[in-house]
Amino acid sequence: MMEQARPLDALNRSRDKRVLVELKNNKQYIGKLKSFDIHINVVLEDVEERVSGEVTRKLGVVFIRGDTITVISTE
Amino acid sequence: MMEQARPLDALNRSRDKRVLVELKNNKQYIGKLKSFDIHINVVLEDVEERVSGEVTRKLGVVFIRGDTITVISTE
Amino acid sequence: MMEQARPLDALNRSRDKRVLVELKNNKQYIGKLKSFDIHINVVLEDVEERVSGEVTRKLGVVFIRGDTITVISTE
Amino acid sequence: MMEQARPLDALNRSRDKRVLVELKNNKQYIGKLKSFDIHINVVLEDVEERVSGEVTRKLGVVFIRGDTITVISTE
Amino acid sequence: MMEQARPLDALNRSRDKRVLVELKNNKQYIGKLKSFDIHINVVLEDVEERVSGEVTRKLGVVFIRGDTITVISTE
Amino acid sequence: MMEQARPLDALNRSRDKRVLVELKNNKQYIGKLKSFDIHINVVLEDVEERVSGEVTRKLGVVFIRGDTITVISTE
Amino acid sequence: MMEQARPLDALNRSRDKRVLVELKNNKQYIGKLKSFDIHINVVLEDVEERVSGEVTRKLGVVFIRGDTITVISTE
Fold first, then answer.
1. What is the span of the domain harbouring residue B55?
2. Is pLDDT above 70 for A12?
3. Do E74 and F64 count as a contact with CB atoms less than 8 A apart?
4. Which chains does F contact via 3+ CB–CB distances below 8 A?
5. Nearest 10 degrees: CA dihedral of G62, G63, G69, G72?
């Protein structure tokens, strides 16, 4: 029997790739996905923060608390 | 004795079909349902984001955090 | 000793009957109750979405995440 | 040693009596308390919905999700 | 070794005394503390509801759901 | 091997000292920290409530529900 | 087999370094990271509070409740 796909598998395939993380406060963080856990806490590297499409900051390493995230997409 | 239907059975029947996921922030994501878990974290493929009925973005793979979802419907 | 009634018993008696589910965002979904779980995740069939009393959409099957629900009533 | 009173005891004494349930969205539901559980999910019968003191609907049976409730009082 | 004080000890010392319970919606309930539990669900007796300092209702017994409470003080 | 510091250690060092507790509703409570638990429920004694920098009330003992707290600082 | 990186590892590498903690209420706290736990409760030392980019307060030790945090970044 084949095991069924799980949502965290998709995040796992994005490790070390650039992803776009969107927050409930509408901020976006684009960076390389270094790690995540079951709470969807996420760590990104080489990060751009964007608000309303504008780059607002460049950041080295960002820890994002899972419960503030709405969606994570590959660019 | 027949086992009673459970809500996740309905999601299971929608695997690999197009579904419409609505978020608390009123964004909609329409795409092929690839996976979900008991927190209702969801992964969609070939996704259109819509806001107020307008397509705002096309995305490859989107991970949606369960606690931001209100309803999931078949189109 | 008689066992005391529990809230989920009331939902159980509404299986396959039409119910009205109200959400925190003030949307209403009227449809046949197919299943629910202890998180009050709910699946309805043959659904009408209503906003401010107006029918806004007809939907086949709708999964509603429990934590977005305020009340469920029989019509 | 006397056991100390617990909040659910007070709800238990109100079974089959009319109670007033108030929600975070300011709606009020007045009806006969049929059941409740540890999440404070509540079922009322013969219910009046009131908004700003006005009766807005009469309902047979209403299931109210606990996390949407602020206070429950006896009339 | 002396055991360290815990927050629920303070509530316990207020049993059968008048307390002021403040809610996230800014309502205040002043009454005799009859019981509480680890979720900080609280039952008051002989209760005055106040909004903006004005008494808005007198109530016999009030069950207050813990997650709606901000602070509880002795008058 | 030295054990690593934990956040509750810092609260523990503030027992019986004056702390400033800030709430999500922007109220501040300044008082002597008498107890706290893992939910960050907190009890203060000899308390001043401040709103926008103004002292609005003096209170004897205040129980503050953890999930309403944003930060706790030493004055 | 190499163990996979976890988000808390990144926080661990920032111990005793200056970090920027951002809250849901848009306040920022910049200080030396002294400790954190699995709820992402955090303790900072030698802290500057900033609102809209302006330094609003200097604080010695600040305990920040995890569920109020959105992101933590290295400056």
1. 12-74
2. yes
3. no
4. E, G
5. 60
